[in-house]
Write a structure and sequence with these properties.
The protein is mostly beta strands. The chain is about 0% helix and about 40% strand. The chain contains no helices and 27 strands. The strands form eight sheets. The protein has a four-stranded parallel sheet with strand order 1-4-9-12, with no helix packed on it. It has a four-stranded parallel sheet with strand order 2-5-10-13, with no helix packed on it.
Length: about 350
């Protein structure tokens, strides 16, 4: 018997999660069961905050399927998250909080036709660029999504082959990784509308093939594919950049590149670069660029969120990158967070001291 979930529409936020271990399954968020738009501004918002001595997190929540679980497209675990004005799912810290939403699994859902990103871990439109080893601190640790290398249709086996790689380092990210594949709603927005298959990824930067039985899904040669990564701790990435069109029998195409989504790329008025070197022994350097007027504060926090060193407080020249250094003197080995904060926005990067 079909189990009907909640139908949630016409809200500022369809579902807001501040707590831990919540399970969101089988709901229609921004859309009715028959596909009619009942838009929320944001479909699901995962967040955390600090209020004096009270720390509220959004850890170990499950939107759809749990990590490493087999996904059954016919089951009722999947949520349909569509037609919301902004993001389908936004996982984002509140300014002034170090309680990032972490370990949140987002798998097997039908996400499409939202005004912003389908899954957004950062607060900016589109898929945020991956870094080399994935050493970020942020919502779901800003986990790297898979980089699609090639997609082709094999007529002999009636199969769609997806070759991909992942740059996340096993020293930072908990392997093995689970990769989920979706037919996207369109190449520009690149939201995962229809789940089509999964694979397990074990070796950093290796190219792996995910083969999909084309006879088991409804697809078109003009469809494109997006992927997500979920690590062993349950963190799920944003959707990858979309592949090129799958094409017809015997037709082989290569992947889109970083410019595949020009309509969604916007300038970021506030950027914090990855520190280098990272890990570091004596000194690590990073840059900040802002196109905003007003004060900015930069501080270093330990892994528990306690401030250990103020790095800067004042005004920066608009539009010009400013360089800052972290000295290892009087700091024990470990992971630290660099936090740069304006009056209404904050950015966080991780840095590891290892002598």
């Amino acid at each position: 018997k079909k189990q009907h979930g909640n139908v949630i529409g016409y809200n500022d936020i369809g579902i807001q999660i501040w707590g831990d271990y919540n399970r969101i399954k089988g709901n229609y968020i921004g859309v009715t069961e028959d596909g009619q738009a009942i838009s929320n501004n944001t479909g699901i918002h995962l967040t955390g905050f600090s209020n004096g001595p009270t720390n509220v997190t959004a850890y170990y929540n499950q939107v759809g399927y749990q990590p490493e679980a087999s996904i059954d497209p016919q089951a009722e675990n999947a949520n349909t998250i569509a037609h919301n004005n902004n993001e389908g799912i936004l996982a984002q810290e509140v300014v002034g909080s170090v309680n990032l939403p972490l370990y949140n699994s987002i798998r097997g859902n039908h996400i499409y036709d939202n005004g912003g990103s389908g899954i957004d871990l950062y607060g900016t439109p589109g898929s945020d660029a991956n870094d080399t080893i994935d050493g970020d601190i942020g919502a779901n640790f800003l986990l790297n999504y898979p980089d699609i290398v090639r997609v082709d249709y094999n007529a002999s086996f009636d199969a769609i082959g997806i070759e991909y790689s992942i740059s996340s380092s096993p020293a930072i990210v908990n392997y093995p990784l689970t990769v989920d594949a979706y037919l996207a709603d369109d190449p520009a927005s690149g939201e995962g509308k229809t789940y089509i298959g999964s694979s397990t990824y074990t070796t950093q930067n290796s190219i792996q093939l995910l083969a999909i039985d084309a006879s088991s899904i409804t697809w078109s040669p003009t469809d494109v594919i997006v992927l997500t990564t979920t690590d062993g701790d349950g963190n799920t990435s944003e959707f990858s950049l979309a592949s090129a069109e799958i094409g017809g029998p015997g037709h082989t195409v290569s992947a889109f590149n970083e410019s595949a989504r020009p309509a969604l790329k916007t300038s970021n008025p506030f950027t914090l670069s990855a520190p280098y070197p990272n890990p570091f022994r004596h000194q690590s350097t990073f840059t900040i660029t802002t196109d905003e007027e007003g004060p900015i504060r930069i501080a270093l926090f330990d892994i528990l969120g306690r401030e250990v060193r103020a790095l800067f407080e004042g005004n920066l020249q608009k539009g010009s990158p400013a360089s800052f250094s972290i000295e290892s003197q009087n700091l024990p080995n470990g992971t630290y967070w660099i936090r740069a904060e304006t009056s209404h926005r904050s950015l966080v990067r991780s840095v590891i001291l290892s002598r």
